[in-house]
Amino acid sequence: MLSNYIIKKFIPESKKDDRQRYGYLGGIVGILVNILLFAVKFIIGTILNSVAITADAFNNLSDTGSSIVTIIGFKIADKPADKDHPFGHGRGEYIAGLVVSFMVLFVGLQFVKDSIGRILHPVRLTFELTSFLVLILSIGVKFWLGSFYKNLNSHISSNTLNATSLDSFSDVIITSTVALSLLLSKYISLPIDGYMGLVVSLFILFAGYNLTKDTISPLLGEAPEPELVNSIIEELLSYKGVIGTHDLIIHSYGANKYMASIHAEIPSNIPVMEAHEIIDKAENEISKKLNILLVIHMDPVNVDNQMINEIKNEISNILKEFPDVLSMHDFRIIGDGDYRNLLFDIVVSQNVKKGDEEKLLNSIREKILQSHTNYNIKIHIDRNYNP
């Protein structure tokens, strides 16, 4: 298969994990293919004096824009961290994908305009074998190019390559519509190309919309993959002395570039220096193993006080009456005598809006005070940032 041959030829086994090489290869091949199509169509269009083929030639020339954007996007993403961007420039790849997805939308809108124009002002098509063969050639080459991008994308899962693949397949659909209309013109006189084009353009717009939405999502800050969330928690809990975790927050700064923070619960009877060694070791080893930057905050937990544990269990049972409360952590009782502070954090679901938080807290306090009237109850709400 030609795609696999090109990939193996230009990306050696030792560089198979280098995202930039795949991006550069996709951009360069796209530029070369589109320039080649432009040259062939322009020469044939000039010889035959065909406005349609010449116009399609310049359309291929404009398609080099998405390939150039792809190269620029991967080039920006490859830049190392600096003073202004301490976590690197990995999101540049997302921006490139967004630009290409806008190009797909533009193609769809332009095709809507052209199709409506053909419906309002029908033009009788005349079948020409040479023009038809040129269109078939263009369809085949563009289909291969779209498949080549998908092949590259299967190695690195890139929104940018996914967008350029859709851009090529959009050209395949559009050119196929033109070729089919040209072929049908031999047998029917109805100007159906405008109606066919309108249906196809709506399909392209829908695909472009979904592509844009998928590309914007990581820029806005989407939820991390559950596999990564579970891996961080499982790895941390495997360390001796870590009895629980909470408040895991993961930020993505580009493909496979993650910064995460998490709270680790440590028994309060463990000496501080020993607890610090546990946390420090976990930070370094998990960061290296999962290829992330992990910061761990230590939370001491009182596990020896029977009274505190009993009250904690009572509170846990009370919280089960509130479906939007997902979990509780940082439970502690501060003070002496008959009147003490009871403090804990709760994690709530996304169903709880900001304006409803105080109402939920008051309901929980009222329920607790029915059996624990001598406590000043302080509850802090945390959000669940993971799927």
UniProtKB/TrEMBL annotation:
Q: Where in the cell is it found?
A: Membrane
Molecular-function GO term, any one: monoatomic cation transmembrane transporter activity
Q: Quick one: where is this thing mainly located?
A: membrane
Q: Which keywords describe this protein according to UniProt?
A: Membrane, Transmembrane, Transmembrane helix, Transport
Q: Where are the transmembrane segments?
A: 21-44, 94-113, 125-145, 192-211
Pfam families documented for this protein: Cation_efflux, ZT_dimer
Q: What are the Cation efflux protein transmembrane domain coordinates in residue numbering?
A: 28-220
Its cellular-component GO annotations read: membrane
Question: How does the protein associate with the membrane?
Answer: Multi-pass membrane protein
- In this chain the Cation efflux protein cytoplasmic domain maps to 224-300, 310-383
User: What InterPro entries does the record point to?
Assistant: Cation_efflux (IPR002524), Cation_efflux_CTD (IPR027470), Cation_efflux_CTD_sf (IPR036837), Cation_efflux_TM (IPR058533), Cation_efflux_TMD_sf (IPR027469), CDF_Transporter (IPR050291)
Q: Which domain of life is it from?
A: Bacteria
Per the record, the similarity remark reads:
Belongs to the cation diffusion facilitator (CDF) transporter (TC 2.A.4) family.
Q: What protein name does the entry list?
A: Cation diffusion facilitator family transporter
Q: Which organism is the protein's source?
A: Caloramator quimbayensis
